[in-house]
Amino acid sequence: TERARTALVKNKARQIINEFAPTNPVYYEKLRERLEKIIEEEESRRIQDASYFNKIKEIYNEALNAEKERQKLGFSTQFEFAVYELLQSIKNNEESSKGITNSIYSKVKEEAGIVGWKNKRSSEKKLSISIYDILSENRYPEDKTNELTTKIIELAKGTYDSTER
Question: d(Cα 122, Cα 82) in Å, to the nearest integer?
Answer without folding.
Answer: 24
